[in-house]
Each structure stands twice: as C-alpha cells, then as structure tokens.
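Interim report to the steering committee. The following record documents the input for L-idonate 5-dehydrogenase (344 residues).
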Amino acid sequence: MRAVVVHGADDLRVDEVPDPTPGSGEVVVAMEWGGICGSDLAYWRHGRSGTAVLRHPMVLGHEVAGRVAVLGTGVRGLEVGQPVTFQPAQLVGDGVLPDRLAGRSNLYPQVRYFGSAALDPHTDGGFSELRAVRAEQVRPLPDGVDTRRGALAEPLAVALHAVGRVSDLTGRTVLVNGAGPIGSLVVAAAKFAGAGTVIAADVASSSLLVAKAMGADDVVDASVDPLPQDVELVFEASGAPAALGAVLRATAKGGTVVQVGNLPGTAASAVLGDLVTRELTWIGSYRFSEEVDDAIAALAAGLDVDPLMTHTFDLDDAAEAMRVAGDRSTGSSKVMLRLGSGTA
C-alpha cells in the first residue's frame, strides 16, 4: 500500500509499505480522508513537533476516517464497510490517573497518538491506504456524516474540549484570536454551545472569511485594527507569543483566557503584565479526552465543517498538499488528502 512518510526535515515521500493485517482485537480500515494538521507540517518542516523529535521514518496523519475492511479475531460491534473515524490516543500502561485528574485522559503521562514521534518507536498515523487499529479506538460514523467530514472529528474535538474548559457559554460574547483551522473550529464550537456573539480576529483575510463562514458574527483584521476591548471570555488560538499582550489587554478585568493555540516549548518574548493587573484567569487546553464522541454527535446534529475544507489533493500529491497547507498566501485552511475511494 501507499503511505505518506516523513523521513526527516524537508523529506516527505509517498512510500510503498506492507499491507497491515489485524491482530486480535484489531480491525484494518481502508482509509478515505485525512486532514493536514500543524503537527504534520512541523514534522515535515523541522523533523520535530514541539518536544517530539523524529528519529525514524513515520507515517503522518491523525485527522483521518475510512471504512472497516477486515475484522480481527474477537472484534464485536463493528461491520465490514462501516464508515468510521478514530480516537487517535492510546494510553500506555494501566491507564490509572490520580483522582484530581479523573476523566482527563489527555493528561495521562504516556500516550501513543496517531502520527506522533513522542515515543520511540514512533506511532504511525493514518495517511495511508490501510491501517490496522485497535477496535476500542474506532468510532462509527452515523448516517449523515460521511468520511470526509468524519476526518475532522479529531480537530473538532480539540475545539469542543477548549470550549468545555469554560462552564457555560450561553449568551456570552466570545473573542477567538487566530482563525486558522482550530480557531475557526472554536468559533463553530462556541456557537454550537450557545454563545451569543462570537468575534474572530486574525491577520489573514482568507482566514477571516473562513471564520465568518463557520459562524463568526463579526471579524477583526488584526493587522489593521485593534482587538475589541473588555471581552469577558477569550480563546487564544494563534499560539503566537507576540499576540499575547494584545489578547490579555482585550480581556475584561476578571475575565478568562483559554489558551488553545500551542505555545512554543522554548523561550519566547511575550507581554504578560495584564495577567496580574487585570486579575485574569488563564486556562490551558490540550487535545481532548473523549470529546471525539461529542464531535461526531455535533456533526450529526448539523455543525457544518464544510467551509473549513478549502483544498483537496490525492495521496500521491501529498508534498504539494503540505506546501499549500503551510503557506497562508494560498488561502488554505484545512487541506484534505483523498487517501482512498471517498468522494468529496
């Protein structure tokens, strides 16, 4: 089968690799769609993503969906031909968390994640024609949610987790700073959760158009205009340290900032004084636990992710797909890879 394999920085190949066979409790899925994420771009550009360093060739991709092709022994409740997506995280060890972290599996100390070099050996992702997956990680897609949309259940789960870090959004005014794919999904998730007014800010006009299509009531071109002031609830989705000063200043005194954009793992300059003087609450948001199930339910309930998917490429054109995804001047938001027979 063919797979999108990163061998090192600036070394991406579509390789022929052996077809997988399912072990006990596993299924083989014929992959149909994949969405390119910032971590995929980081492995391609730098040979690392955050603190995870590429040591061996690895199949990329964790935003994926397909159809069950082969059932391994002992698998119940799944059928050949069934459309599915995945919980890409697999806990290593006994899975037990301290009581204070109950239900927060995203904070478990060791996790194998599709397309991640965090552990050695690395965990291959799903940008391939076939993939063997543990049955408990498989999530069936309901009627009305095709595999193209289902591939975005994972990043939508990230957005829903971020929104869920705040108890109640009903009727509230929300600012989302950074309207890339995750920021635009936070816009949609906030509206889905009942937010009254959602404002999206970014420096790229194409990203603001996507955010507007995803449900933003208003947009701000941050390259020209200042952020709105005195917003009680702000989601920082850019991950840019240089933006933090303006974001904290835009947050109302006593307000809350949810940090969903990944910040650098190295020293970076940022203006943080308002965190103290405005008595702000700054909350981190990392991946998700089981919100992938909530994401699938939201898709089935009509949350529309179509405006996010701006470009589509075949698997053999993965290098060009990565280039487009990593170049904001292309107007790209979520770039999709057609991995198999799924149709747009």
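The mean pLDDT is 97. The committee is asked to note this result when reviewing the revised timeline.
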